RNA sequence: GCUCCCUUCGUCUAAUGGUUAGGACAUCAGAUUUUCAAUCUGGAAACAGGGGUUCAAUUCCCCUAGGGAGUACCA
């Protein structure tokens, strides 16, 4: 009977939760759900100089926003430093690790020389078999893991297959710094073991570490977890992610108006697929996900596809959910783009206009922009392209229509549309010749939701006033 | 430099030892339409190159090229 699956996401809080991290978290979360296992969260904050509180908050916020909830309490790695040191001392006592008295400067010189002579700049093992008695009195030392020198280390990776590292290329890494604090490769192994992690799904950049960590597991006599190293996500140009194109914090995507469901769906399809399925909720991913269906090649981040997906999710969202998302988003936006000034009546108006608005928006930001005309103060500003539609003839038509609208007894989309069609016929013009000037007068733009909806949502009073503003101009 | 990984339309990807190499985004054309979207129809678009293995390779193996990762008293 196989034991319960335990996965984990283990970011280091030295920056925001980026897109690659989010996807790694997603895969771990989904795999845990798919197998009825647990998904743990561990913050790897052993680098005291670079770890920050805001980064921790950003990671937790990002995961919550995406809905990737973790089981149990968050584990902070630094808090477990004493446990890691204890294991290091155990290794030392068992002769599986040793004290290295070489100073950082000395090591730099060693590496530089190796490089100059065309050799690999690995630690040369100068203290590996040396008698510690030769060490200078009271000199600081780091503890190094005594890695096997001969043979090879094999990592059976679920994604990459069998990966073989020649042991001569994996040097004796430091597991305890000279100040007594543990380093990453030791801490990870001890924590994953202690937390009962069975499956390590992480970025490809850790593949070499998997080799080193396997050696530590072996030295400790612990079971090696299943490894799955997922190819990294590159920028649109195929190179490393940069700020310019995608290496943004997940909160930046939120601020750009992307929906969590769209992010999840997009991330899911990067490096993983299920036949021809493109648009599916995360529940489906849980149903379909398997480590064996992960791709082996790196993928590029494509904003266009994300936008398309986001558009789908916006259209599929209920008006009320979209209003909720906008209210949520509002505090994350700069003042001028925000919805800060809206009162309850404005929000109701926005919800009323939502069916026409959401059809045309790929992001929540576009949605807000499209809704701007709703809250414009008269006389509204007319864009250049819209102004061209308001010719003298057009304004005369508006004046006629204004009179018809004023007589309308029922202010509904259907009645307004009927009135417009009658009006166009009476004037002997195409509907567009009336609709476009109307659009300009009512929204100040040549692009908007269906004009009859606009009339309706604006309300009789405001709509008539805006039409009159143009009809009676000059 | 050394070690490791990767390579199907521009992008994300599917499939297969024998297929017209499929889908999605983007793109182009058309339809629809009060604008823009959305929607519908259609088009263009890929097996990195070279060797093998085989009756047959995009598929299996090797090499080359290109891309990426690692190579810290960072994680």
Features:
474 residues, mainly alpha, three-stranded antiparallel sheet, RNA-binding
Provide a brief overview of the structure:
The chain is mainly alpha-helical and 474 residues long. It is built from 19 helices and twelve strands.
Description:
This protein is mainly α and 474 residues long. 46% of the residues lie in helices and 10% in strands. It contains 19 helices and twelve strands. It has helices at residues 19-35, 53-66, 81-93, 104-116, 184-194, 207-220, 250-255, 260-268, 282-288, 303-316, 319-329, 344-358, 364-371, 384-387, 392-407, 413-427, 431-443, 451-458, 460-471; strands at 6-9, 38-43, 75-76, 97-100, 142-145, 152-157, 161-166, 174-176, 199-203, 226-230, 233-234, 299-300. It has a three-stranded parallel sheet with strand order 1-2-3. Strand 2, helix 2 and strand 3 form a beta-alpha-beta unit. Helix 16 packs across helix 17. The radius of gyration is 31 Å and the shape is elongated. The N and C termini lie far apart (86 Å). The chain binds one RNA strand of 75 nucleotides through helix 4, strand 7, helix 5, helix 6 and strand 12.
